[in-house]
Amino acid sequence: MSIYFFEINDSKPAIACVGEKLPTLHAARCFALKYAAALICEQESEFWDGEDWIMTVTDANRLALFTITIYAAASPATMPLSRTG
Q: Domain DUF6894 spans what residues (predicted)?
């Protein structure tokens, strides 16, 4: 088993880097998606404020293996109406 590190940059509040022992790169990719989904649910209000999250996954030597960019934008249909006048 290899250790993989999952780090999200530019999140507010900061999210600590997580290390996981996983058997394959495929397992690390699956873990990254599940971990990102869990974080989005846990930090829903911060995530939906429109900040990009970039997850970088590295190996034990901190060599970047892949990144996942996560971004959400609310549609005008879900934004509150502003009234003038």
A: 4-70
3-state DSSP assignment of residue 79: coil
Length of the chain: 85
Which helix or strand (DSSP H or E) is residue 25 part of? helix 25-42
Q: Looking at the DSSP assignment, which residues form a beta bridge with residue 19?
A: 5
CA angle, 34 then 3 then 14, to 5°: 55
Contact 3, 57 (CB under 8 A): no
**16 in helix, strand or coil?**
coil
pLDDT value of position 27 = 98
* 35-61 pLDDT tens trace: 999 988 888 777 777 677 899 999 999
Give the whole-angstrom CA distance, residue 6 versus residue 56: 6
